[in-house]
What we know:
- This protein is of the alpha/beta class.
- Helix content is about 35%, strand content about 20%.
- It has five helices and seven strands, in the order ββαββαβαβαβα.
- A seven-stranded mixed β-sheet has the order 1-3-4-2-5-6-7, sandwiched between helices.
- Strand 5, helix 3 (about 120-130) and strand 6 form a beta-alpha-beta unit.
- The longest helix is centred in the C-terminal third of the chain and has 18 residues, at about 180-200.
- It is globular, with a radius of gyration of 16 Å.
- The two termini are about 25 Å apart.
- The model has no long low-confidence stretch (mean pLDDT about 85).
- Guanosine-5'-triphosphate (GTP) binds near residues 53 and 145.
Amino acid sequence: MKPSEARLARVAVRAEDYPSDGRAEIALMGRSNVGKSSLLNRLATTSGLARVSKTPGRTRELHFYLVEEGHYLVDLPGFGYAKTSKQRREEWAHWITSYIDAREPLVLVLQLVDIRHEPQPIDHQLRTALAERDLPACVVLTKADKLSRGAAVGAADALRRVWRLDPSLPIIATSSETGSGIPELQKLIQQRVAAFAAAGKTR
Ligand code: GTP
Ligand code: MG
């Protein structure tokens, strides 16, 4: 697949500032430091595009990256970092909920979970929020380079059991360091964007 190029098209906090051109959107969600910005860089290939944080909790707005093919990758604020204030976490929860509730062009949510860690309460909360809204989602395990291939498969199976995931819901193990799993994820994104274009609607 041809590498895509992307540019930061919009930074928004309030819903009225989200893009209004109707292009399909793929959103990256997950705890702070899970690797959202790193994965976005990989997916868009322009390295250094989304700021990768040494200090978790850096991304505080929704960043809309317009990919050459004509869809947006949306880097959402990370949530649940221990050192952030309760008020800040509530703000994050509010942004995320208002985004998924009102976003017609949202064709796919990538829910990122660190492959080395058990999902935390906030991960469960997000899983429930996505399932309740029947949003098309893909669970993405990040930092797969930190585990052996066998252990990575085991982690995916464990998560499928814990969350009683529908077998049709994909789980993709990725590494933004080595690029493993990225072509598979890009293929899924292309399929969702193509279906959106063909149907003229999201879900
Ligand atoms: P917030 O913006 O704070 O919510 O964090 P984020 O989810 O965007 O995480 P980010 O991409 O900034 O990555 C956090 C840290 O994890 C950085 O030090 C990255 O270099 C590291 N990291 C991200 N992805 C990978 C990966 O696939 N493998 C390894 N080994 N490290 C990774
Ligand atoms: Mg980030």
